[in-house]
Design brief:
By secondary structure, the chain is of the alpha+beta class. The chain has ten helices and ten strands. Strand 9 and strand 10 form a beta hairpin. Helix 7 crosses helix 10.
Length: 353
């Protein structure tokens, strides 16, 4: 008696491809938000993980996809996450287990109860088959903390988990879109301060303003580091060589307006503040200087801060992080970054480059 392990068709579109071989099509379930996880296949890519919304972006005849972090290109099918691969394997394993159980029942001619009694007169025998209860494969566990974006070129809705550069579908340079999103978050924090002051008091509102300032400086520093890394790698520096340059030259110089200008000129060969006057640079420098007492001294003015900014504030007093001033500084920092990025990368920042 012959019995096929699988019936062809069904929800997994089973197809027999040989004497003992079958082909299945496993659909990966999207997350609660309707997005599918993707992961760059390059081992040295970080963070590698991102998500896309099916039905947006390039929907017809897509032959290659891109990593939004390193722009590695490959077939879309090569961007499955490790969790999705495990889910597919578990699904196939579950189907095989069910098929084998079915073959055993058929071979022993067992009924729905899984039991069969054989009566031979003086002797009788009962056969039973009680396999462990099967549990369906767990859905892939996806990360939640993310940055959402829609590519203005192809319309792909996707989410990344770090400052990314490229559209996963069309490969367009979206770095400045991600930077704008980061500054939008800071803007929302600042806009909510009046309500937070009313609901939670002046102390909490002051902390919100300080956090917004720290975030602004952090975005400024991170964006310049990413730009520097990309420029060095494009010039032919190895990853290890770039790491050494960061260790010896970059360090934390991008937290300070003066040293940021020098480092940027030295490593990227461009003026960071081209088109900005001295008053704008001084304002940016003055507000950025507030970060030190906020981050390292609970917001208390110390001698190091006074020596640097020459302000009229008193040592030992709490620094005044004015939300309006921080918002102006945030917008100024954003303009500096956008214009610098355009000068350094605009010639190469085209889709398919």
């Amino acid at each position: 008696m012959s019995h096929e392990l699988f019936r062809e068709g069904g929800p997994y579109r089973v197809r027999k491809t040989g004497h003992d071989s079958y082909e299945m099509s496993i659909s990966i379930p999207p997350g609660p938000d309707g997005m599918l996880a993707r992961e760059c296949p390059r081992q040295d890519c970080s963070p590698a993980y991102f998500r896309v919304r099916p039905g947006t972006g390039i929907t017809d005849s897509q032959i290659q996809a891109f990593c939004p972090y390193c722009r590695h290109s490959a077939k879309p099918s090569e961007f499955f996450t490790k969790a999705q691969v495990e889910y597919a394997k578990d699904t196939v394993s579950d189907e095989v287990t069910g098929a084998v159980e079915g073959m055993i029942r058929d071979a022993l001619d067992l009924g729905p109860s899984g039991r069969k009694k054989i009566d031979g007169g003086l002797f009788s025998m009962e056969i039973s088959f009680n396999p462990d209860r099967r549990t369906p494969p767990s859905r892939p566990i996806e990360e939640e903390l993310r940055r959402d974006l829609t590519c203005p070129g192809c319309g792909l809705e996707h989410a990344v988990f770090g400052l990314a550069t490229w559209c996963p579908d069309c490969g367009a340079d979206l770095f400045l879109e991600h930077v704008r999103k980061e500054f939008e978050v800071v803007g929302k924090i600042l806009a909510a301060i009046p309500d937070r002051r009313t609901a939670l008091g002046a102390r909490v509102a002051a902390r919100d303003a300080e956090n917004a300032l720290e975030d602004t400086v952090s975005i400024f520093e991170t964006v310049l580091k990413i730009m520097t890394s990309r420029h060095l790698l494009a010039k032919g520096q190895s990853h290890q060589e770039a790491v050494q340059i960061f260790y010896k030259t970059v360090r934390n110089t991008y937290q300070n307006v003066g040293s940021a200008s020098q480092t940027f000129k030295e490593l990227l060969g461009a003026e960071l503040f081209q088109g900005f006057d001295d008053a704008e640079r001084q304002e940016l420098d003055s507000v950025f200087a507030m970060r030190h007492p906020i981050a390292h001294n609970l917001g208390i003015v110390d001698r190091r801060y006074l020596d640097r900014v020459r302000s009229g504030e008193l040592e030992g007093r709490e620094i005044s992080a004015n939300p309006g001033r921080i918002e102006r500084t945030m917008k100024l920092a954003q303009r500096v970054l956008e214009q610098a990025y355009a000068r350094v990368f605009a010639p190469a920042a085209t889709p398919g480059s």
